[in-house]
Amino acid sequence: MKSEKKIKFYPLDSFNVNILLKNYTDLLKSHYNGRYKMIVNSCDNKLLSYHHSTTLDHVEFSHPIFHLLNSMIKEIPYCGIYYGIITSCYLSKIITLLQDTNNISHIDLILRLNRVQDIVFNYLDQAKQKEELNGLNLISIVQSALKQLILEESFKKLIAVSVVKSVLTAADESSCRLGHIQIKAVDGKDYCETFNGIIYKMESLWQPKVIENDHKKYRLMLFTCPLDNSNEEYLKITKDVFIESLVAEDIKIVASQKSIDKKLIFYLRRRNIIALERLGEETANTLAHSSNAFPVSDVSRVNFQNLSTFFGIVDRVTYITILDEPYILMEMDRSKVVTLFLSNRSFDTLDQLKAIIKECIHAIYSVFKHPWVLPKNFDSNLALELRNFHDPDILLTKLMNLFAETLEESFSFKENNINSTIDRNDLFLIKRNSLAQAFLSVSKIIQVGMYIVRNQC
């Protein structure tokens, strides 16, 4: 019987930090519009208690921000809520800073991150002297601490933003589960809603009038090209003809993967047509799949006298308010489209838990995968492990074994991208340690998930 491969993690102190930082700087820039945010869940401290183990003790984080996060996890076991805030929001600030300055030193990054750490830890030290920390008052403590940071948004808004916003593609037994998933940490309160549809956040200025309730179906036109002055083909069409054609075909929703001219939005609104712009590629693909709309990539090829071959069908359209923000919910009964708002404490069903963990691992790993690829049969192997419900530590070890073997087999050496002082083996260790820290984050979520599955499902 083949024995499992043992993994030994090495510290990164001896590696060239400047080369490492440059690699991650390029990586952060390339993922500016990608899925670089982490899914986190915060529960009572008994659910997120820190367990000392050989695996955890020997893993070193290879990006400065993870030194901070590692310290936070060790110091405060149940700090998942602001772990996610700093990861998603502060990392976004760093990416913006990198884009603005084109160059930032390792020292500058460390100083900025140390400032966050010092502010939070000072408040926590003061709180420890006055009261016992728990999952509830920790949030208000960290809220007070992070208010000192110079951020564009208030902390109340930051704590309620999406930690992850992406399209979830997860096949169930019917192989047709496709949806738009948003996971929110909502100011320490339980919050979980599931909708059979795609949610789109509306700009308050462009909210259309209430659609008549007697409409049973809503026709939708989907464009993957911009409908504004940047599109030469759009400039050639007559706006009156365009709008009258939509009205004649009873089109109620015009959605674009990219931008829509503000004047056109205004004219559509006057005719009681909903305009959805900047959907993004993944959401647009989901909408096309769900509504059976034909995505229009070139408006010059559209016969506006006959739009029947292009439009799709949405079963119901509803306006809803989430966290005091306006959203439009488009529901398609026949497609099993699931929009899930998950709290920082609750899971709804076992199927959703599995899908979330799968998406979590994929999202976190996507930060580190370039130029590497996911291992062969990763999804099926992960699904098998989840079905077996191994202990979180065992599951983490198995996943790391899988990745270590894959990296060793598919390692590609590019001499022009490394310093001569770093050999092939050193780079392999850097990659492996990066993956290790990602899965440490995943293991925390799996640990919470296993507890909930055993006790509530």
TrEMBL record:
Molecular function as annotated in GO: ATP binding; unfolded protein binding
GO BP, one annotated term: protein folding
Domain of life: Eukaryota
GO cellular component, one term: kinociliary basal body
Pfam families membership: Cpn60_TCP1
Gene3D superfamilies per record: GroEL, GroEL-like equatorial domain, TCP-1-like chaperonin intermediate domain
Name of the protein described by the UniProt record: DALR anticodon binding domain-containing protein
Species for this entry: Rhynocoris fuscipes
Lineage of the organism: Eukaryota, Metazoa, Ecdysozoa, Arthropoda, Hexapoda
